Amino acid sequence: MLRIPRASRLHFHDVGTWSPCAYRLVALRTTTTTTTRRCMMMMTSTQTTTRKPKEEGSVASIFPSLSGSDPNLPPRFADLKKDIWTDSLVQSWRDVLDELRGAVEEVAVKGKDIIPSVHFSDLKKGLSKEQISEIRRSGVVIVRGGVPREEALDWKRSLMDYIALNGDKVKGYPDGNIQTRARTHPALLQTQRALLQLWHSSDPEAKLSLGTPISYYDRFRIRLPGDRSFGLSPHIDGGSLERWEDPGYRACFGAILTGRWREHDPFDAAPRLHACQDLYDAPNQCSVFRPWQGWTSMSATGPGEGTLRVVPLLKVATAYLMLRPFFNPRTSSSGLDDWVVDLESTAFPGSQMGKIQELKESTHPHLELSRTVVSVPRVEPGDQIYWHCDLIHAVEGFHGGQNDSSVLYIPAVPLTVQNAEYLRDQREHFNHGLPAPDFPGGEGESRFLDRGRQVDAQGEAIGLCALGFQRFDDGPSASAGEARAVLEANEILFPKIPTAAAAAALGVR
Fold first, then answer.
1. What Rg do the C-alpha atoms of the chain give, in angstroms?
2. Which residues form a coiled coil (predicted)?
3. Is residue 467 part of a domain?
């Protein structure tokens, strides 16, 4: 938390890294089937309905360990395990544990050096096969050199000036003009496009354009030396129980849950479009498909200075997480190799209704988190870090450095029909100075001086498109799914204004 002397009651909460990516669209129903059906119906709607304002919330509201919520689940979760179970998972579990042993040792030996780092110029000319392989295996990447150092430092200075100018009206996240410029910076949008295209769609008809990044307004953090107030334990955003409970979300891990974990493709976007990641209408939830979470540094910071931590084992760690509820130690004194099938208990370790997925040594011991959670290497102002939406990550509990640790949370989000609906509502909130739809409500910046405007967008067309102020263009080589995504997104954002190119590509007149 940062306190500003010129405005004694101003404060920020560093919450950007924990906002789960989840569709917050329906209230809890008594059965999984009903809940999921309502969620999917609303996800596919393109009506210009007004979103219900978000409730107030904090880190404690979505972290089981911080909220003191009851870990016991209703009996239906034992039935859910039986419904999912197949005998092939026994051998798959053994195989995953064997794979984990070697992977854990590799991370323990290499430490932060296992995290891939590329230069922005590499992205512009195209990543090598080796670089792509390293990024996909670890699920995280540092991109250096995209934003000039002095420009990133100027963003921080301007944000501080903006805070001071608006005094006691600042209660949390200000998305002022500097944030607008940062979120539409050409280098950041080019980086996002390149990383989004590491994903693919197994369904060519899927309404998705991975080459079209859009802006998702998130928070920024300024963390002072000596701070101990904001350490986050290892977790994964995007809900918890929903991974098993929602059929659409469960399909994203279908290979794992049918005994074929090595065939799991964490970079296939197609099933993600049908996932409902928030069945419980939880506060502080992200309601877009966000393949890459990310932040851009506004300071020089490194390990031990309150930075990001990750478990750079995307595929095998995901497989372990998804299989973990079906196995338990034979006895309380059993070792890691003496586990048996558990289909009778309701336990989904680290998972609770309406919370994120937490992981601890006690709940997920085979991950050996004390050895596999590593702090990211040192970064400079203007460097970017992105991590896969399924990646286990955390935040250091203590900032032991000499200078502030400051970041802008800027993820990589593609154009989809559902994301376009959010972009439409975000644009409306932005125009009126209100908090973005996924964040706690209130008057926001509606009475602020010098708040962000459309004219602050950078990069001309690409920046305006990312903010939803200009129609998207699919281009001549777009697939049927991409063309449909662009057409429907433009209809959502600009009703009654047809896009000739997209319509022609689809044979629509």
1. 22
2. none
3. no
- 117-119 and 140-144 strand pairing: parallel
For residue 119, tell me if it sits in a domain.
Answer: yes
Higher pLDDT, 419 or 15: 419
User: What is the number of alpha carbons within 13 Å of residue 423 lying toward its C-beta?
Assistant: 31
CATH code: domain of residue 363: 2.60.120.330
pLDDT at 230 over 70: yes
**Residue 184 belongs to domain spanning:** 3-67+84-202+214-414
Checking if the pLDDT of 22 tops 90, the result is no
Q: Return the percentage of the chain with pLDDT > 70, whole number.
A: 77
CA distance 236 to 351: 10
Question: CA–CA distance from 327 to each of 63, 74, 77, 425, 428 (Å)?
Answer: 23, 18, 14, 43, 47
Three-point CA angle 337, 340, 344, nearest 5°: 150
Show the DSSP H helices in 147-280 as ranges. 149-166, 177-183, 186-196, 242-245, 247-251
Question: Distance of CA 222 to CAs 2, 44, 386, 395, 405, Å?
Answer: 6, 38, 19, 14, 6
